Structure formats: C-alpha cells, structure tokens
Amino acid sequence: MKPLIGITANVDFDWKHTLGNDYLQAVIQAGGIPIILPAGVIGDAAHLAKKLDGLVLSGGGDIDPTLFGDEPHQKLGSISPGRDHYEIELIQHMLKLDKPILAICRGIQILNIAVEGDMYQDIYSQIDSPVIQHTQNAVRYHLSHYVQVEKNSLLAEIAGQVQFKVNSFHHQAVRKVVQPFEVVARSSDGVIEAIESKLHKFVVGVQWHPEPLAVHGDPISQRIFQRFIQFSI
C-alpha cells in the first residue's frame, strides 16, 4: 500500500490556495500518494493526523511573529495567520502520533515554532555578522551554496556525506531550537539549515527546497523523499 502524504498549501489574503507541482511529483516519484491540505480546518487536525501516513510542510509566505513573542519587524513580509494556527495544530498531533514529517523552508520554521522555538523575521537585518545570499537569483533546481551536516545525524546518513550544496529561497530562518529538535546542518555563515527530532522516527526540517532538486534528478534530494516515504509506510 502506498502511503497517503498530506502536503500543506500556501494561502493568500483571499484564501486562494497554491502549491508547486514539484511537491506532488517528488512525493509520487518516491512512492507516496500526495494529498493537498487546505488551511483553515482548525479543530479537525486530530482527525486528519490519524488518517495521514506522513506530512510535508511546504514553503510559502512569512510567519506571524506574535506566535513566538516578537513584534512585527520592518522586513516582515505577507503572513497567513489561519495557515499558521492550522499547521501548528496539525504538527502537534502528528508529533504525538509519531508520524513522519518532512518540513521544507517555511515548514522548518513553523515546525520549530510548534514546539515553542523561535525564528529570525529577517536574517539580513537581524544577524549582525555577514550573511551569504539566501535568496538565489537562479532557477529553483540550481545548487546555490553549501551546508555542513552533523556526522551522526539522520540527514548525514541519508546524504552519505557531511557537506553538500543546496538551493536557497528564504529571508527568514530558525533561531532558537528547542527539544525534541536538534540543529543538524548550517550554512557557512552559521544560519541553521536543518533540524531533526531525536525522539521521533522521522521528523526532519530543511531550510532549502529539495522538491525541485529531487524532480530534476539530484540524488540527495531524492533520497530525502525516499527515506521519508519509507518511514510513512
């Protein structure tokens, strides 16, 4: 039986839902059945979590900073409060059930916030030391910069190496990481690029976008989706 994989959709001001096709194709390619999840079904997340075999938290807009005790920064972009609250509730139920989660870009940030971590609203103005380009001016499957991965991490095991290149499309990033998560990858400027739970069978968050890379043949990205699907069966 192929696992049912819920993928959260982005939501705009008019509640228009959008999701890049690469998310769907990466899940299909790895052996799962993708299901697009609409935002705003708060209260039904517990029931939904029981039905899903795995969850992909997709990328998208910015996150409401009041969820982690901050005031809005001048560089904060568009937010979707309904999506934020829905995803946090869904994440918490998936964690309780120990079901696999793959959190991508915005997803790694909301994953960390769901367990009371926090984040930078804008890395370029909130990090004092020099920051490399994290919003690349290239196609989505271009490998933009390197990440350094902890050697004893699940991510390093999947990749088969402790340094590799990724793409990059973000101006926000995880800041304080709390249990059950640990930082397992950073870019050369120190920005957190991946976290993992040590208490769950597969809960991995990455700051980059492995879905277009997987679809375009990047072997590490393909293995990330394959391992996620294997844990979802």
UniProtKB/TrEMBL annotation:
Classification via SUPFAM superfamilies: Class I glutamine amidotransferase-like
Classification via Pfam families: Peptidase_C26
Ordered alphabetically, the record's keywords are: Hydrolase
Keyword Hydrolase recorded: yes
Keyword Hydrolase appears in the UniProt entry = yes
Q: Name one GO biological process term.
A: polyamine catabolic process
Tell me the superkingdom of the source: Bacteria
Q: Please give the name of this protein.
A: Gamma-glutamyl-gamma-aminobutyrate hydrolase family protein
Q: What organism is recorded for this protein?
A: Heyndrickxia sporothermodurans
Upper classification of the source organism reads: Bacteria, Bacillati, Bacillota, Bacilli, Bacillales
